[in-house]
Amino acid sequence: MTTNAHASGRRAVKAVIPAAGMATRFLPATKAVPKELLPVVDRPVLQYIVEEAAAAGITDVLLVTGRGKTSMVDHFDRRPDVEARLEEKGDQKRLAEVRRTSELADIYTVRQGEPLGLGHAVGTAASHVGDNAFAVLLGDEFVEEDKPLLPAMLDLQARTGGIVLALGEVKPEETSRYGIASVNQSSEGTDIVEVTGLVEKPAPEEAPSNLAVLGRYILPASIFEAIDNTKPGSGGEIQLTDAMAQLLADGVPVHGIIYRGHRYDTGMPLGYLQTVVMLASKRDDLGEEFRSWLAEFVAGGAKG
Ligand code: UTP
Fold first, then answer.
1. How far apart are the C-alpha atoms of 118 and 120, rounded to whole Å?
2. Which of 28, 100, 256, 274 is most buried by a 10 A CB count?
3. E-assigned strands of the chain?
4. Which residues contact residue 25 at a Cβ distance below 8 angstroms, ignoring those fewer than 6 apart?
5. CATH classification of 14-265, choosing from 3.30.1370.10, 3.90.550.10, 3.40.50.450, 3.40.50.700?
């Protein structure tokens, strides 16, 4: 194990889910319905994300919400009326599903008065988080349940301290949609790199690598001061990337874990549709029927 002045030896135990953005890429659906509540088969996107946190042992979850977003919190409440009806009907399977949503985690909320950027959204979590490292899970993407990412990130951060990022290989022409990392090899393990620089949305010819920063971060509490010192950057927003770059410049260790599984990105219509199709196809209860309908539809045979 590497000894490191930043290492805490303790795993982060709280997660912050920024979900106060305007979701302009999914308008007009998101005028009144938060994109975090769009259903993937029969669960909202946000539930997959809270499940991902809970599966990694994180059960203190802070949702950063904003105008028109309070219904997100309701999803994790008890619904005694619905539960009573299901009990009357003897529908134990659905009853268990409904109850499970309120048992996954302790959900807290904080408001971001105006969507001033991801960095600003994370900044609103300062008093809830306190002095310990914490996880950030973006509210519109998640990873494969059987290829989790968070446990390895939490373990690495407890070992090295500082920042731990999730990185995914993207096609060269896609670099301008992501934060891109410059990296060195690391002795920490396979698929772990040392991050030496971060650039927000570079053109392909300027990108230092094809490793994009995915929507999972483990951050030290010192990020809050860095966010306070961050001026609005790209798009006039207070960027988390800029605050992380400050810590990097101050000598805080930044590591990345390269994720080899599939990342479901539900923040825009195409990624959302792909997510629904992939997860519906994998379901035990309806996957078989859905796949055979889909194959027929794609071959041009199926009717609506
Ligand atoms: P996005 O970049 O996806 O922004 O933010 P967005 O506003 O949700 O969507 P578009 O780009 O307009 O379509 C990444 C995550 O950060 C949250 C979003 O809710 C999303 O989960 N976020 C972003 C905030 O909570 N507050 C902000 O000010 C910006």
1. 5
2. 256
3. 14-18, 39-40, 43-44, 60-65, 106-111, 134-137, 141-143, 163-169, 179-185, 192-200, 211-219, 254-258, 263-265
4. 267, 268, 269
5. 3.90.550.10
Cα(24) to ligand 1 centroid in Å equals 9
- For ligand 1, the distance from its centroid to the CA atom of residue 45, given in whole angstroms, is 14
DSSP state of 49: H
Ligand 1 site, residue 64, Cβ cutoff 6 A = yes
For ligand 1, pick from 22, 49, 136, 237 the residue to mutate: most ligand atoms within 8 Å of CB. Answer: 22
Query: Quick check: CB of 21 below 6 Å from ligand 1?
Result: yes
Task: Please give the DSSP secondary-structure letter assigned to residue 275.
Answer: H
Ligand 1 proximity of 38 Cβ (cutoff 6 Å)? no
Over residues 153-158, the mean pLDDT reads 96
Show the tokens assigned to 85.
């009806």
Could you give the C-alpha distances from 9 to 6, 83, 133, 144, 301, in angstroms and in order? 9, 42, 11, 27, 58
Q: Is residue 166 within 8 Å of residue 256, measured between CB atoms?
A: yes
Where in the chain are the domains?
14-265, 268-304
pLDDT for position 303: 63
Report residue 236's pLDDT band, with 50, 70 and 90 as the boundaries.
confident
Atom index in ligand 1 nearest the CA of residue 17 equals: 21
pTM for the whole structure:
0.94
How far, in Å, is the centroid of ligand 1 from the Cα of 20?
6
